[in-house]
Write a structure and sequence with these properties.
The complex is a heterodimer of chains A (about 300) and B (about 250). Chain A has about 300 residues and is α/β, with parallel strands linked by helices. Helices cover about 25% and strands about 30% of the residues of chain A. Chain A contains eight helices and 16 strands. In chain A, the strands form three sheets. Chain A has a seven-stranded parallel β-sheet, with helices on both faces. In chain A, α3 packs across α4 and α5 runs parallel beside α8. Chain A is globular. In chain B, α4 packs across α5. Classes of the chains: A alpha/beta (about 300), B alpha/beta (about 250).
Chain lengths: ~300, ~250
């Protein structure tokens, strides 16, 4: 049975998490196909076709797919699902929104946030904010998975290019219309894929302090910016900065937690980082229990010193 | 318009769960249980819709064992008008998975005909994030997940969603399923008079057999393990030592 990966993209380029998902798909046996659905997205199909392990790309390209939601995409996937033993998408807001809908229409379970593949029907996934890892076996004929991108290395570009096959775009399923999108244009690396993440919490005291102290540091390190829930709730930064159980899951080479106390919900989103640095004035803060290097200090003094030391 | 809210009884968010010694599951004996925090946000949003005159009735639904009655009473103490427990029995409740819950909720929707269903985006025990989307699929309704703003305008709802790249606004035809994200609202606390009042509100118990839904689990839980602990770190005395270690020991800075 072949494996179908649903590509996440912005119609121009493949989202980094798709590469990790293809890597996971390659561990299932069977040929890996990638479905690219969108509008004027043939460039995305070319990128997908160049990934190692990809045997074929299915391209549904139509104006009606420009703002397609889970309703239409699920119908498209269903129309092309026969012959596949596994359907995969990244465990991003894209995949989490879409794949349960696909699974329900197929009358199968969906397995969320897979962090390891033991056999083609046995998977490991975190539960309870990552405080436990459950190994589950699916008896369903089709396994529908979302894959935690940070748990799988991103796939390389392959030597050869897979064929791209155009498929008929579906009838749009009505009921939901995209009427607006606000995304802060950022030149920084994607939070989920960045090698270094600089993350701030309530200890920064205000959005102004967050930007004044952390942005120059992120610029210097070419890092993505993240935040704790407390900092997002307080309005320091937008929602898509949130790292944690219910926000973004990150596992960079270096995670610098500044003024973050370290609630279990936050730790769930970053404790797989390779090196964790914590700067906090409270020596009892739980963040120090997971930090490789802890500095008990006033962040308003320590952060400028840190920036100066690495400049 | 009737609003249906799905609520789940879960381990309290402050509890750090432990894995059982035999690795069969997590140990929930004598652990504090509460309403799933995302479901509290869903209840709050439904009550606000009723207070704004948009919703006529708020019905809280839970699928589980009889212990979930406590969670439904909490929902009514917050302001839900009545409640329905889909009683799955102890064994049935222990094996409930999102697909089965979505099917049960679909069966309840067929009886109740709500104009809107609000669910938490995920439960903090299994962290699945599936039930609302599955219910929408089974009902053939549109979905708006991870909502941070909800405005009902006649026969449609305008929903702002928190997505990885920022915010997205959808207009969905009703009936629809909306799942809540953290910033949709800040749930109120139940007052003592309202807790007392909630005890007198109607709570219907619907035996799972009456709904004709197969709730057998599709996924077998083979084992549960603690994640590998991180090695203990070190405290550094100052910024200079920190930078030195990051450069020469961890080798993560140039």
């Amino acid at each position: 049975m072949n494996v179908l990966v649903i590509a996440e993209h912005d119609h121009k380029s493949l989202a980094p998490a798709t590469r990790n998902t293809v890597s996971a798909a390659c561990r299932l046996g069977g040929e890996v196909h990638v479905l690219v659905a969108g509008c004027d997205c043939s460039g995305v199909a070319v990128q997908a076709a160049a990934l190692a392990g990809v045997g074929r790309v299915l391209l549904a390209d139509a104006p009606s797919l420009a703002g397609a939601g889970a309703e239409t995409l699920a119908a498209l996937i269903l129309a092309h699902a026969s012959g596949y033993g596994h359907l995969l998408a990244p465990a991003s807001t894209f995949g989490k929104n879409l794949m349960p809908r696909v699974a329900a229409l197929l009358d199968v379970a969906q397995i969320s946030d897979v962090v390891a593949i033991e056999t083609p029907d046995t998977f490991v996934r975190p539960i309870y904010a990552g405080n436990a890892l459950a190994t589950v076996r699916s008896a369903d004929g089709v396994k529908v998975l979302t894959v935690r991108p940070t748990a799988f290395e991103p796939g390389d570009e392959g030597p050869a290019s897979a064929p791209v096959e155009a498929i008929t775009p579906p009838q749009t399923v009505g009921g939901a219309r995209l009427v607006g999108r606000e995304s802060a244009a950022s030149t920084r690396p994607d939070l989920g894929a960045a090698a270094i993440v600089v993350s701030g919490g309530r200890g920064l005291g205000s959005g102004e302090n967050y930007h004044r102290l952390l942005e120059p540091l992120a610029d210097r390190l070419n890092a993505a910016l993240g935040a704790s829930r407390a900092a997002v709730d307080a309005g320091f930064v937008p929602n898509d900065y949130q790292v944690g159980q219910t926000g973004r899951i990150v596992a960079p080479r270096l995670y610098i937690a500044i003024g973050i106390s370290g609630a279990i919900q936050h730790l769930a989103g970053m404790k797989d980082s390779r090196v964790i640095v914590a700067i906090n004035k409270d020596p009892e803060a739980p963040i120090f229990q997971v930090a490789d290097y802890g500095l008990v200090a006033d962040l308003f003094e320590a952060v400028p010193q840190f920036l100066e030391a690495i400049s | 318009m009737k609003v249906l809210v799905a609520v789940k009884r879960v381990v309290d968010y402050n509890v750090r769960v432990r894995v059982k010694a035999d690795g069969s599951d997590v140990d929930l004996a004598n652990v504090k249980m509460s309403m799933n925090p995302f479901d509290e946000i869903a209840v709050e949003e439904a009550i606000r819709l009723r207070e704004a005159g948009v919703a006529s009735e708020v019905v809280a639904v839970s699928c589980g064992s009889s212990a979930a009655q406590e969670t439904l009473r909490s929902a009514m103490a917050l302001g839900a008008d009545r409640a329905i427990l889909v009683d799955c029995g102890e064994a049935g409740a222990a094996g409930l998975q999102p697909l089965a819950v979505a099917k049960l909720l679909k069966a309840v929707c067929d009886r109740e005909n709500p104009g809107l269903v609000i669910c938490g985006k995920q439960a903090i025990d299994d962290d699945a994030n599936q039930t609302g989307q599955m219910l929408a699929a089974l009902a053939g309704w549109p979905q708006a997940t991870f909502a941070s703003r909800l405005v009902v305008e006649g026969s449609t709802a305008r929903v702002t969603r928190e997505v990885d790249g920022g915010l997205e606004t959808l207009e969905v035809d009703l009936p629809a399923v909306v799942t809540t994200d953290l910033r949709l609202n800040e749930p109120r606390y139940a007052t003592l008079p309202n807790i007392m009042k909630a005890k007198k509100k109607p709570l219907d118990i619907l035996p799972v057999a009456d709904l004709g839904v197969d709730i057998a689990p599709r996924l077998a839980l083979l084992r549960v393990a603690e994640p590998a602990p991180r090695q203990a770190g070190v405290r550094v005395a100052n910024v200079a030592e920190l930078v030195h270690k990051l450069r020469h020991e961890a080798k993560v800075l140039p």
